[in-house]
Batch of 2 targets.
Target 1
Amino acid sequence: MGMLMPEITAATVSEWLKDYSAVISEHANELTDLDRQIGDADHGSNMARGMNAVAALDPQSFSSASELLKKAGMTLVSTVGGASGPLYGTFFLRLSTVIKTDGEPTAQLLADALDSGLAGIVARGKAEVGDKTLVDALSPAVDAAKQVAADGGSVADALAKASTAADEGRDSTIEMVARRGRASYLGERSKGHQDPGATSMALLVESAARCLSGGQS
Ligand code: ADP
Ligand code: MG
């Protein structure tokens, strides 16, 4: 629609990280309850601790979006004890390598950034789609964003479709048997429960759609 997209700067990224931190605080009890069903009841507190530390980073002390994303990733790795810390940390570190320069983002750039984040998570955690992890929310989101980019769509459309796909992926974990992480110890008994990490990942993509779409609809 010829509407100007904001550049992705440290300030834009900071807005996103602060939004996600607030969302995690709101949903911390829900995430912990989900983790109580198939894990050790700490996913909400793990994510809240990590994202509180990330939200406290002052965007003014970073010269670019990339520098802030990198610091956010390192902060998550160092402050979150659970499996989710290194995985979410890797996600943001990978984003920092794709969103290298500040500027007006394209749908392709954001699809590439999410794809790189997914690749980092898979390299680290070895989960595949269907293993009942946060990969089940992120992977369909990446596919949806790539499709919009290939069709020449907008950033807002790419992130909106990615968010819808992440929600569907999160829901699909309910019927899955866990094959990675703590929930895998339960085997068949993990069935019938929504994966906590897929739930926090769907919230992350939704937050990105809200904060990085530049006011387009
Ligand atoms: P922990 O399992 O160490 O207590 P959390 O409770 O914070 O850590 O996070 C659990 C979530 O981490 C799971 O719901 C799952 O989505 C995700 N997870 C665990 N292991 C893996 C893995 N190998 N690959 C991808 N995601 C994983
Ligand atoms: Mg846990």
Target 2
Amino acid sequence: MPPNESANLQRQFDVLLDHLPAGVVVHGPDGRILSANRRAKVLLGHSVEELIGAESSQVVWSLVRADNTVMPEPEYPVNQVLSTGDPVSDLVVGVPATPPGPVRWLICNAYPERGRDGRIERVVVCFTDCTKLKLAEHRAQQSEERLRLVLRGSTDASWDYDLRNGEVHYSERWWEMLGYRVGDLPIDAHTWQKVLHPDDFRRVTGFLHDLLGGTTDSYSVEFRMVHRDGHAVPILSRGFILRDEDGLPLRISGTNTDLTERKQVEQRIHELAYFDHLTGLPNRRFLAEELDKVLARSERSGQFGAVLFLDLDNFKLLNDTMGHDIGDLLLRQVALRLKLALRHSDQLARLGGDEFVVVFEDLGTTLEDAIAEANHVVDKILEVLDQPYHLDGRLFVSTTSIGVTLFEGMGADVDTLLKQADLAMYRAKADGRHIARFFDPGMQAAANRQSALETGLRDGLARHEFVLYCQPQFDTHGRLVGAEVLVRWRRDSGVLVAPGDFIGLAESSGLILPLGRQVLEESCRALARWAGDRALGKLKLAVNVSVQQLRDPEFPDEVARILARSGAPAGQLFLELTESIFADDKQDLAERMHLLCGQGLRFSLDDFGTGYSSLAYLKQFPLTALKIDRSFVHDVHVDPSAGPIVKAIIALAQQLKLEIVAEGVEHEAQRTFLARNGCSALQGYLLGAPMPIAEFESLYSATGIGHA
Ligand code: C2E
Ligand code: CA
Ligand code: CA
């Protein structure tokens, strides 16, 4: 090769060398440096002038071995090659920085270049920076060391899983924690899964999956494992993952701590913090948190709720005269009675002393309903707490005063409500004790009226103050085809009360059951009485029945008894139900209705279109007739949209093969419209107002039984 060309090639080669990411240093046979590339200068921290002609020991003041000890000069890579003639590979060497700083770690390879005669002419040393790798390794070693230190003498269990070779290790304590001896189960990477609590399986395996794929190196997770004897052991598992440079996991190690004791302590702390130790009832703090949730639920449902503040009337006296132990006994019994008297969903708490709080939900969406319901629970609570107590062999009577406040939604906060109920309770004490008072004076007045009315209802039932009115029903040709029984309350003052003013209260107080029974008994007697009459003998008689009556499992038997006793023809009896049945457990009610149909009577659906109407529901119940609500009838001749609605209802009823009765017919125009569109029967002031049953009989009977 011509000298020119050779020099050219050498230059190109030097340029190439200079761009190499590895340091390259070429030594002569005497160990002195002949040339060095750019990376070598950077890594060794010297200029060309300093390097060329120097010996290794002059360039670096002392090399360090991988274990941080000083390397003697004969061990320097170039010297090793010169003395042994063999290459040196992958030797880790530390180069102290100039000026002094952290050691830079290099991986070195060195090899000899020999002449034709076999003598070493040059030694080439290549090296790359591995400082980062070395540091990572160091840190990993330290963590392992620390873990080992921590585990020595600890009650924690440890485990280790080497993902590279699949080796698994569970410490003796690991097995012992779960009631096993080492190796009682096959030891592999899945052993822990076999003792993982089934309910935590998905969560933990998911967590582990995320952890292995993620970038965090340490973790801490709680789960349960199953002890050999079957009980769950709460575990805190902590550990770390070793990863390679690309982040792939190499190894996972960790410790498991048995949390059983800690959990028990936590539970105890929770009990102390949230429960009253004497009665075991929730305390004020717990109540406040629960009440918060109750208010949020009320906000969503639009239902009223009530907070009752209870205070025993003579507790202090009992405590002072009979001692605290007896006082405690009473408090415990009061707590127990309350617990038994309340529903599971009601909240009960003891605030301290002889003060208890009860929170009720779902008292209805109107204030009237809520007041009636609240009155009820108050009566029930007063009654159960009034019963004599057996205290250490002695009988003791205790009465209670109750403050009530109602809430709807989140208008008032927890503190405000408790304060209101507390104030109301003081009112009750001031008004003579052993009673309940509402916080709101308006509510109090309403509550007073309602409880007076309820007492009146009860007395009225006993004194047979409820009388039946009858309203006639006609077909479209004007022939009398039936009648509806409508109850009135003739109070001893002579006032006639309309059902709208007492049916609601009768329902919420449960009095609807005896009232409904009276109405049905009397209606059946009328049907039996009419049997021989040419005009009345074929009439269908409709009796309104509250859904509460239908809910009563005794109802079918009761109806059967009434029919049998009166001798009424069941086939002429219609029970009118409102759409509120659709809000109930449909299956149950439908079955009960079928049972009743078996006795021959039939059902019609009252006030159709005002409630929960769903066409799908109609088919689920055994119905014979549909009554179009009077609000629709009222509008047929005034509101252009009412006509089509009524037509649609009629078409629907016809499709379902139901009879259609229109109620509230007051005008000729309504009658014409309804008759033309296929109504089966009409009822309303136009054709006949409700009248006392005797009047009805004398007006319509062919034989004049009404005068009998
Ligand atoms: P309802 O079953 O819809 O009864 C029809 C109501 O409409 C009756 O009111 C009746 O007097 C009234 N009415 C009749 N014709 C017309 C009319 O042309 N125009 C207008 N505007 N109204 C008319 P009442 O007697 O006051 O009864 C009210 C509700 O009380 C009844 O509504 C029914 O839901 C309930 N009710 C009545 N008696 C009983 C009963 O014995 N048991 C039960 N559970 N509820 C009853
Ligand atoms: Ca009715
Ligand atoms: Ca009706």
